[in-house]
Design goal:
Four copies of one chain form a homotetramer. Chain A is mainly alpha-helical and 120 residues long. Helices cover 60% and strands 7% of the residues of chain A. Chains C and D meet through helix 4 and helix 5 of C and helix 4 and helix 5 of D. Chain A binds a DNA duplex (15 and 15 nucleotides) through helix 3.
Chain lengths: 120, 120, 120, 120
Amino acid sequence: MNFDSGLPIYIQIVEIIKTRIATGILKRGEKLPSVRDMATELKVNPNTIQRSYGELERENVVFTQRGMGTFVTEEESILEELKGNMAREKIISFMEDMERLGYNRDEIPAIIKETILEGK
Amino acid sequence: MNFDSGLPIYIQIVEIIKTRIATGILKRGEKLPSVRDMATELKVNPNTIQRSYGELERENVVFTQRGMGTFVTEEESILEELKGNMAREKIISFMEDMERLGYNRDEIPAIIKETILEGK
Amino acid sequence: MNFDSGLPIYIQIVEIIKTRIATGILKRGEKLPSVRDMATELKVNPNTIQRSYGELERENVVFTQRGMGTFVTEEESILEELKGNMAREKIISFMEDMERLGYNRDEIPAIIKETILEGK
Amino acid sequence: MNFDSGLPIYIQIVEIIKTRIATGILKRGEKLPSVRDMATELKVNPNTIQRSYGELERENVVFTQRGMGTFVTEEESILEELKGNMAREKIISFMEDMERLGYNRDEIPAIIKETILEGK
DNA sequence: GTGGTCTAGACCACA
DNA sequence: GTGGTCTAGACCACC
């Protein structure tokens, strides 16, 4: 795993975990890897993972039980919001890419429909 | 710049240059940086750039004039096709991402329209 | 327990015991811990406790029976006065705090009423 | 300065700074001591101060300008809210103390009024 | 100079 | 074992 995108490593890890949760790789209520295991897996310092987990907890995406571990939230509403946010980000960056390629915002839905039909 | 995506570096450079052309950073008929300059800019071996330019020429995206340098094609149809291909790739990977987030192919155009409206 | 408030330790202990009596942790007529036990509990020299007990006796808050130990006074009037004094101190320091936060002496009772209502 | 209240040091520092702001010792827009100076002053590690400042920034009580320092927020509404919160905490703990001394919640405003009158 | 991030390694409370 | 805190010391970007 590389972390040279310019963003702080702990933020990048937050994004990775959010993606895993939003896409269902990590499920509602599931235990995350321990701070130490995650640190070993991603080859970063445990404090960095700690910070990532802390940030996720602040956002109520995960919760921790002392001595037990860190878990994906049980609250469905937060998970839905998370998916919505990630989708919105994906859409926005996609649209920016498309505009850079010379397409107009408003014609994009139509182009997508075409592409869907082609693929069928 | 990192080139550790697994793909051969020369292919990655081909993609970078195609993106620059498709987005208009490099314009129709414009001279590309010399092999040597490009190698310096991307911190790779000049032979690698040479190979990338060769590939681009094979695809008629650029053409070479001995002693003058390498230039973006003058043929509008090729540029259009290039943009179309890049757009199609973007759309496909975007749709895969959205499906992973739990959205159905067919509902995506509608979601995009909503997001456009929100952003206004 | 820390005793680094600047005040003599024996005075601080007098205050601790008065608080325990005023709040009913130590009841009317109840035996106080022996000097030796109290010294162990608070991790101070027994002579210090001896001095604190002496001070409390001087104020008629406790009385000593040779060979039996030290006891909270039986006189209700002294206990009432003790509570009144502690309340007055609490009120004064509370009001100073509130004034420092920018509240006027005279508006404080009203603010408290509001807070009581909120808490209901 | 002692930090053995059981609470994490960084939280205690957050409280100290909030008190300084709420009581006007630190004014609207004023620069806080640098992380390093504060660490020296309070004899803790700079990272601990960093964490405290980060927490305060998260709560919008302060903001930072890279290379310039950390400053008390300019937003009056946040400062008002801060004072309100600190007052509420003071009131609640004061009332708990008074109840422990045998006074009823509802009679406290009256007792305060008496104490004010006595002091005049 | 400022804050921001990261690593290394320690100790603690909780279970 | 788990997460939570703290220290020490380094390097970075920005001003």
